[in-house]
Amino acid sequence: GLSQYSSDPRTEWDLSTYSTREQVLEAIRNLRYKGGNTFTGLALTHVLEQNLKPDAGARLEAEKLVILLTDGKSQDDANLAAQTLKNLGIEIFAIGVKNADEAELKQVASEPLELTVYNVLDFPLLSSLVGKLTRVLCTRVNEKSNKETSGSTVKDFPVKTGPQLSPTDLKISAVTSKSMNLTWSPPLRPPKKYRVVYYPSKGGIPREVVLDGAVSSLRLSNLTSHTEYLVSVLPVYDTVVGDGLRGITSTLPLSSPRSLRVSELSHNSIRLSWKTAQGATHYLVLCSAAPDGAED
Questions:
Q1: 193-200 and 207-212 as β-strands: parallel, antiparallel, unpaired?
Q2: pLDDT number for residue 152
Q3: CATH 3.40.50.410 intervals, the chain
Q4: Does residue 296 carry a pLDDT above 80?
Q5: How far apart are CA 107 and CA 104, in angstroms?
Q6: What does the alpha-carbon distance between residue 283 and residue 257 come to, in Å, rounded to a whole number?
Q7: Nearest-CA neighbor of 237 among 184, 168, 186, 165?
Q8: N or C: which end of the chain has fewer CB within 10 A?
C-alpha cells in the first residue's frame, strides 16, 4: 500500500489493491508526485487510521511495517504520532533524502536504528538502498514469524471497534468565526486519553490536543474565519487504539459593519457612520475618487 502526503495525506492504493509485482511497478510508474508541505505526523496518523485497517487489506496475522520516505523536516509533531504506531507493534523504517532531519528520522524510527534509519543526498541514490533494505525487511518479518510459530507472544495489530472501545455521536456546536465546541459520547470502556487533530480541509498546519480519557468535550479556539475544518477524535488505550470519530464544519465569516451613512459634507471632508461589527478591534477606511474624470 502507498500514501503520499504534504499538508493533506492521500492514499494512492491500499494493501489489497494489487496482487502482483508487475501491477505495483506499473502503479509506481503512473504515480504523480505530490508537492507541498511536510506534515509527517498527520501522514503517520493517516496510515494508522486509513491504511492499516482490515477493509484496506491489512491482515491481523501479518507483521505491520511502515516505510517513511521524506525530504524535509516535519512541520508537525511526527514523534508523537510515530510513538502511537510503535506502541501498537508497528515497525517504522525512516528514509531521508536531501534536507531530511536525521535527528527526527531517529526519533520516528523503531529500534535498532542502525537497521531502520537511512539517509541519502539525492533521490537517484535511493536505488543504492533497495538491496539492503529489502534484505532487512524480509529478515525482520521472518524473525517475527519464527517467534510466533515457536510459541512466543507477538503483538497483533489491534483493530478494535464497537461501543466497547470506540466513542460515538460527535457533535459540533457553538460555531463562531474563531471557535467551535466538540462533544461526543464516550465508549463503554473509557480510554487512557483522546487525541483530537484538526486542520483546514484545503491545507494548513494541523493542530493537536491531547485530553484525559475522562473528558468528552473540547472547545477549539484561535481558528481561522470562514474556513472548513476537518476534525478527528481518536481514543487511545494502553495497548490499542479504538476507531476514531471524524467531522467537518466551517467557521463563520467575520461580521461586517452595516448601515454606512454619509453626512456633514464640505468642500474637502465628509463624515461617515456605521453600525459596529461584532468583535472588531479596528476599522480600515479606504477612500478613492469616483471614476468618470472626477477630481481627486
A1: antiparallel
A2: 37
A3: 2-147
A4: no
A5: 5
A6: 9
A7: 165
A8: C
**CATH 3.40.50.410 correct for 2-147:** yes
Q: How far is CA 86 from the centre of its chain?
A: 17
Q: Which residues contact 78 (CB under 8 A, 6 or more apart)?
A: 40, 41, 44, 104, 107, 108
Cell numbers that stand for 277 in this block = 461589527
Backbone phi and psi for residue 66, each to the nearest 5 degrees, phi listed first? -120, 125
Nearest to 12 by CA among 26, 37, 273: 26
Report the distance separating Cα 61 and Cα 64, nearest Å: 9
Reading phi first (left if > 0) and then psi (alpha if -120 to 50, else beta), residue 259 is in left
Q: Flag whether pLDDT at 270 surpasses 60.
A: yes
**What is the band of 147 on the pLDDT scale with cuts at 50, 70, 90?**
low
DSSP code of residue 106: H
Q: Please check the confidence at residue 223 and state whether its pLDDT lies above 90.
A: yes
Place of cell 504523480: 32
- Given a cut of 50, whether residue 155 has pLDDT beyond it is no
Question: Residue-wise over 74-111: b if at least 16 C-beta within 10 A, else e?
Answer: bbbbbeebbebbbebbbbbbbbbbeebbeebbebbbbe
Strand pairing class (10-13; 2-4): antiparallel
Cα dihedral across residues 224, 229, 235, 241: positive or negative: negative
| CATH number for the domain running over 168-251 | 2.60.40.10
Distance between start and end Cα atoms, the chain: 65
